[in-house]
Amino acid sequence: MLEVTFFGVRGSTPCSGPDTARYGGNTSCVLVQVPGESPIVCDLGTGLRYFGLSIPEDEPFIGTALCSHLHWDHIQGLPFFPAVLRPGAHLEIVAPVQDSRPLAEAFAEALAPPLFPVGLDALPGTFTFREISDGTFTLGSATITVFPVTHVGPTNGYRIDAAGGSVAYISDYQQPYDGSLGVSETVVEICKDVDVLIHDAQYDPDEFAMKFNWGHCTVEYAVAVAQATKAKRLLLFHHDPGHNDEWVDKASAMAIDLAGSACEVIPAHEGLVLHSKG
After folding, report:
1. 201 Cα distance to chain centroid
2. What pLDDT is stored for residue 159 in this prediction?
3. Beta bridge partners of 135
4. Which of 38, 219, 228, 271 is deepest in the core (most CB within 10 A)?
5. Can you list the residues of the chain whose pLDDT is less than 50?
6. pLDDT at position 278
7. CA distance 181 to 17
8. End-to-end CA, the chain
9. Residue among 249, 179, 248 nearest 220 (CA)
10. Got the DSSP string for the chain?
11. pLDDT tens for each residue of 245-273
């Protein structure tokens, strides 16, 4: 079975305080582990640092990151990932094809002066880059399906199938501008019958009306995607930094009522560990 661990569940920017302590304030980072194989990390947000702290110092790190896109909240944990601050470490970064420059150049520009004190070449570990916006490839025994999703700029969704289980990761997803609940045929087809659907659930309807073109969706839309794909479990993800624990509690209760018996709904929180099996 696949083991899924949440190290960062927040969207847009990290936040900290007593009102967000239960769900956590670190940005997107989810570990998907196939038993006995190299780790697969979904996004490189600030939660990545905490994943790194869980890796023994004497354990050589070799793994793959599936980046949904290159917005700050999804890559800013990379230079603070202890596991790549060690000689011999290697991380392959998978991300969408960029509009104007190769993927490696885009990372080099984001993590370099004056935006950051040092560049990636100053880190002891090594990096390789795989640009893909559609298609499949394998990582060990896992099959990774890559598909484009609507957001602001090139953005991927991912489905991971291995060890008798399946996980779909759609961290940032633009709901139709008019607030309707239609789901793209691509998402429905690729995520059909997935065991675990990790999905953007950033706004309520009033917030969406103010930010309808910011690339995110409502909690109601996340439920609609889960129902359309017949997902077994929906993990509400990418919580807004302005939403405290009580807000997430209430939104989750509403989502559970909306979903009914169609699927299990769980609000993602830091430290949550679950297992996916068919």
Report:
1. 12
2. 98
3. 146
4. 219
5. none
6. 57
7. 33
8. 8
9. 179
10. -EEEEEEE-B-SS---SGGGTTT--PBSEEEEE-TTS--EEE--STTHHHHHHTS-TTS--EEEEE-S--SGGGTTTGGG-GGGGSTT-EEEEEEPPPSSS-HHHHHHHHSSTTTSSS-GGGSSSEEEEEE-SSEEEEETTEEEEEEE--SSSS-EEEEEEETTEEEEEE-S----TT------HHHHHHTTT-SEEEEE--B-HHHHHHSTTSS--BHHHHHHHHHHHT-SEEEEESB-TT--HHHHHHHHHHHHHHHTTS-EEEE--TT-EEEE--
11. 999 999 999 999 999 999 999 999 999 99
Residues 6+ apart with CB under 8 A from 27: 8, 10, 11, 12, 13, 14, 43, 45, 46, 47, 73, 74, 76, 77
CA distance 218 to 202: 6
Distance, CA of 246 to CA of 244 (rounded, Å): 5
pLDDT attached to residue 85 = 87
The CA-atom distances, in angstroms, between 117 and each of 81, 86, 114 are 15, 18, 7
Neighbours of 133 (CB within 10 A): 14
Distance CA 72, CA 65 (A): 15
Query: Rounded to the nearest 10 degrees, what angle do helices 245-259 and 219-229 cross at?
Result: 30
- Give the separation between CA 152 and CA 158, rounded to whole angstroms: 17
Strand partners, 41: 31, 65
